[in-house]
Amino acid sequence: MTSKLLASNLRHHLTRSARILFRRQPLSTATAAAPDSPQPYEDAAGITMKGVKISGRPLYLDVQATSPVDPRVLDAMLPFFLSRYGNPHSRTHFYGWESDEAVERARSQVAALIGASPKEIVFTSGATESNNISIKGVMHFYREKKKHVITTQTEHKRRPRIRVEPQMNGGGQERGIRSGTVPTPLAVGMGAACELAMKEMQYDEKRISMLQERLLNGIRDRIDGVVVNGSMERRYAGNLNLSFAYVEGESLLMGLKEVAVSSGSACTSASLEPSYVLRALGVDEDMAHTSIRFGIGRFTTEKEIDRAVELTVKQVEKLREMSPLYEMVKEGINIKEIQWAQH
After folding, report:
1. Where is the Aminotransferase class V domain (predicted)?
2. Least confident of 24-28, 81-85, 211-215, 294-298
3. So what CATH class is 201-331?
4. Cys-Cys crosslink for 218: which of 34, 99, 130, 309, Cβ 3.0 to 4.6 Å?
5. Chain centroid to CA 321: how far?
């Protein structure tokens, strides 16, 4: 009862805060996650962050980097922050037992979504650690028998029926594969998210596909030289990676101050090199440098898509007006046949 009361009060506070912020800065649904207090660089004229000033929080279209938590997932997690805070590896009292039971239920929820056995699910801190355990763990375990790993730059497939060597020493949790206390609230949230996905992903896919089509058609109807990177049939609908001919990608990103998008994965976004995944897909280096990744999620709205189209088209047109190459193309000159002199 106490847990439900605390969770209810916290949800009420978060909802009230979100409503206040939404009225103040209506640019994006991302405001729902912002605190109800002015930011250090916020004033009546807008927000200044890292020298960039905008009128309000940007539209959020970078869902491949991270995404807002579904409120239903938060509801599942809150009790394990507030009252059910036991260590799931404590075997001598009720608090540990209920946390352990919650973690194992979450493990089953994840397994059910991907068609695996709960015994195959190992909770880690994230994708980087999981990749290290999967790849280095396999290499180390089989190092006396096998010496080569054959893979591709874009591969992320499961490797069933193999054994791995742990990459960390510790208490032997997660059947010895990943030592360290499992954070119960995070495991519970993962399980709840997987259960929701199992129920709603068909609906989400249809809706997100509609938004992707709206975004692509909205841009292509107004400007030329727009190329979709990757297959349109065999792709996740929430990812739309576009290249804009005769536009430098970093300049486009800097101009899109009111839209949070990316030129690639957050893991490598500090590099100015074109995406190695796009290069592996056969995208020319010049076009890879002009790519922008739009990420669409469960909470993206049609209004946000339409605004993103408007801002993207406006910025591409602005940059092309300053591009001598685009002027040459409009005059009918084949720039690929030009032999550029070096000085």
Report:
1. 60-157, 173-307
2. 24-28
3. alpha beta
4. 309
5. 32
Q: If one looks up domain 71-194 in CATH, what number appears?
A: 3.40.640.10
By the 8 A CB rule, do 187 and 103 touch? yes
Contacts of 254 (CB under 8 A, 6+ apart): none
Ranges of beta strands (E only) in 197-307 are: 226-228, 239-244, 259-260, 291-295
How far apart, in whole angstroms, are the C-alpha atoms of residue 17 and residue 13? 6
Q: Which one from 267, 280, 322, 335 is the annotated catalytic residue?
A: 267
The pLDDT of residue 210: 97
Q: How confident is the model at residue 184 (pLDDT cuts 50, 70, 90)?
A: very high
pLDDT digits (tens, 9 = 90+) for 16-41: 544 444 343 444 544 454 555 545 45
Q: Which helix (H) or strand (E) holds 105?
A: helix 94-114
Tell me if residue 194 is catalytic.
no
